Every structure is written in structure tokens, then in C-alpha cells.
Amino acid sequence: MADTTSLSDPCTCGSGEKYKNCCGQEFLRDKRQKRNRMVLILSGVAVAIGLLVYMQKDIDRAQNAAPSKVGHVWSFEHNHFHKINEHGEEVEADPEH
Questions:
Q1: DSSP code of 41?
Q2: CA 55 – CA 43 distance, rounded (Å)
Q3: How far is CA 15 from CA 26, 46, 79, in A?
Q4: 3-60, pLDDT tens digit by residue?
Q5: Domain residue spans of the chain
């Protein structure tokens, strides 16, 4: 006979109940906890990957959304164009922003 106890076998404690309804409850609880933990971890990884993909697309969209103007450069920090002086340095159109 095998050394392992099937969940449908009589319990080894002698209660007459099936193992899964008696002493096997702890085994089943541990099994469910491991499964739930794995589902939680995989869900977290899936959400993290989804956020990374979304953020990368958002960055790409922002970089491609700014139309170019001659003599101007887009400021992602201020979300508008800045003028460029003759030395190639940014000059804000409105210093209050």
C-alpha cells in the first residue's frame, strides 16, 4: 500500500470520516493559501507590467504630440513652447510660468 493518504481515504486518526473532511482540512487550507498567494503575486506582476506599458505609451505620445516650430523648443516641464535665442538657449515667452 502507498505511504501517501488520498483525500478520499478514511482518516488516519480513526474517526471514520474521509481524510479531506477530518485531518486533511489543514492540507487543503495550505493548498488554497498557496494558490491564493500565487494568484495575488501574478496579478500584481500583471498590473505592474500593464502600468509600465501604459506609462511608456504615454511618454511616447507626449514626445510625438508637440509640433515643432522654427525658433522654438517644447518644454515638457511647462507644457508649452519656449523661444530660443541666437545662442540656442531657451528663453521663456512668459517668465511668470
A1: H
A2: 18
A3: 16, 45, 74
A4: 677 877 888 888 888 888 888 788 888 889 999 999 999 999 999 999 999 888 877 6
A5: 10-65
